[in-house]
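Why does residue order matter? Because the sequence determines the fold. Keep that principle in mind as you read this record.
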Amino acid sequence: MENDDTILKVKNTKYTLKESPYYEDQNNEIELLKNIIPDKLTIESDDPNYVLEINVTSSLENPEKEYILKVFLNYFYPEKSPRFQIYEKNDFLQEYRKKEITARMNKVLEENLGGPTIYQLYECAVEFADEEEERRAKIIEEYNHQLKCQSVSLGQVKLYKDFEGYNVTDIVVLQNNYLILACCEDIYNPCLRIIDEKYEKEIYELELLEKSEHAKYQCKINKLVLYNKSSTEDYLYIVGSDKIIYLYKINYLKKTNKKTGLNITIEQITHNSGYNFFDLIILNEYNCFLFLCKDEIIFWNQNDKFIITTDSIVKQINNNEKYQEIFQFNKNLFVLTNPKNKKLIFLKIKDNFLNDIKWGKKINICCSKEKNYMVKIDENNLLFWNINLKTIAIIYIPTQEIVTLYEINYLHSIIQLNSSIFLCSNKGIDEIDFKNSMLNIYELKLPKDFKSLNFIKPLGKGYLGLANSEKFMLCK
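Structure:
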């Protein structure tokens, strides 16, 4: 081992690799590696020191994961241990597993100090890759062992009321049981339609855009988000495809207004086009709103004005990704979609979220630019599907991995109602029951005159709202 004076001298002096007294040992070891693992070894650099990249895959049959092992030799190797990095090639290696393999490799370096260690590091990485494949296979085997499918007819959906000519994209239910429908029959003139508390007739229509704005915007309402401030006051956020957040204040009256026939007043507070909005979640547990923009996430304080301003922003984060949707799996875990790179991205927020927000794993999966459906099955499992993905993917949350794929080709959308999950299609509605981790599919036929389906949502009181581009229907 070289003394400290020699090390200090090397650190402060420019040198070439060939000047190292260990150059011949290093070169001989690398030549040997070229013969043993020629297809896996890449020499990224040899100036001033060797930097090696080694592809690592499991020795088991048909491995799914691929890892990269990088080794950084130094002037005194093998008398001084090299640095190394190991990561999954197309994914993130979970932190606890990364710590485990790092500890193992450090032990290998200690045991082989003074001699060749690169191939020993490679063997350690292969052993780890074998364990990962076996662990993944075990999870899938255990899950699929419990998985079964059966089809049982549940009879005809009972039609309660239909509304011809409505192109509904979202629905919210107010405290007084009014329905607010987001309608886009004309993309230049989107509107809100209010249905009475008995779900029998339209009682009011509210245009979002002034006539002077009709030629300026083409707006499809993507999402309605209702924030219940109190028993007498709500705030309605409207996320539009024109990248604008509209904000309306709803007051509940003790008596019906004779002029409008409503027992509510609706007042537009603002619309904000300063950000490229895609999605919105209300986080009551953190007393804030979460806005998903194209390339960042904004945490916005629930101020009295309920208007997003620079002063009201409490946190902005990004991950060099292009986001489209966000799904809250639980209080601390969120799942984002990135259709461009075909990824699901996990975001972890701890209770003191301002100081502890971390990106989790990325999963390669086909995300749609139109709509992706995510449903929480239970505390450990997430269901993911979109119209481009001809399978239902079930993701095991503790390891953030896809554990099973269930092929189904005719879906239009997926919703959750109580403990059941409904698969909706032109053929009808199938119910998936995940009780006891059993997958049961039940066909539920649509009315005969309802030949296509592009929207469905549970409304409470046993009602389902169904819609296509020509009709909105209330069913029981």
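Helices lie at 4-11, 23-36, 95-111, 118-145.
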